[in-house]
Amino acid sequence: MNYELIDSYPFYVEPFHVDFRGNIFLSILGNHMLNAAGNHSQKRGWGIATLNESQHTWVLSRLSIEMNEMPRQYEHCEVRTWVESVKRYFTKRNFSIHRADGTPLGYARSVWAMIDLETRKPCDLLTLFDGDILNYVTPEDHKEPYSSEGGWKEAVCPIEGHGRFRFRDPEHLRTIDTHYSDVDINGHVNSMKYIEHILDLFPRERFEKQQVRRIEIAYKAESYFGDRLSFYSQPVSNDETDIEVRKQTRSEADGTTSQEQGETPSSPASERNEEVVCQAKVCFKD
């Protein structure tokens, strides 16, 4: 039996990685998951450093995180990750988050694409590197020994997959400029930065009484240093809100944005010349 399908990535919840309630920031937890995914891929020859040599890289397309509890300050926890499936242009990767004693805290599902760095177009995963990635697909409920101390790692992710978003008449909440700390080594706004900006839309009182139960985000397009992002809200229920993030396109003639040209957030989308960058669903619980 192959015991190299599920990886464990331990992490420690630092005091500067928690919110005012002592819970880890969701974006920090997301970064731990991305690190786990990166380590898992690197060990198997599919890491970013290796891929960059052939002008390829991974791009996160969808991410859903659902938490029963959030890791707390000073806790030792771990992320486990494995590849659920591989299709021609996308691969699905799952995660489970645990305390050091193995208690599950939550789960996540993600969808990734491989792109060519020169053309920015998706690559055929079934033929790239002779389809080697298929060797790491993990059957559902697959188990592996956890360590010499005993226990098992299981490929179980009992949360819903990714849904669809339908925005009809969302309310404009905020427009921001992107800056140095928003942008990662790929030159575009980091995927976890969107989560930070989206959660910043909610008032402090919301987080005093509730915690995020689930966040689902679909990344539609890249944005870059200096782009202006507008955030739109569409309530679904008392505990569920859909958010759409759009970037203002710039005039090729003079470099001005749509708002600088006199357009307002209340203008029709076609008049605002905005491009949807990502869409998200945020669900709270008491």
Can you put this structure into words, describing what you see?
The protein is α+β, with helices and mostly antiparallel strands and 286 residues long. It folds into 2 domains: 7-154, Thiol Ester Dehydrase, Chain A; 171-285, Hotdog Thioesterase (Thiol Ester Dehydrase, Chain A, Roll), CATH 3.10.129. Helix content is 15%, strand content 36%. It is built from 5 helices and 12 strands. The chain has helices at residues 26-43, 48-52, 191-199, 204-209, 269-272, and strands at 7-12, 56-67, 76-86, 91-99, 104-116, 143-145, 152-154, 171-177, 211-219, 228-237, 240-248, 274-285. Strands 1-3-4-5-2-9-12-11-10-8 form a 10-stranded antiparallel beta sheet. Helix 1 (26-43) packs antiparallel against helix 3 (191-199). The longest helix has 18 residues, at 26-43. It is globular and about 50 Å long. The model is unreliable at 266-270 (pLDDT under 50).
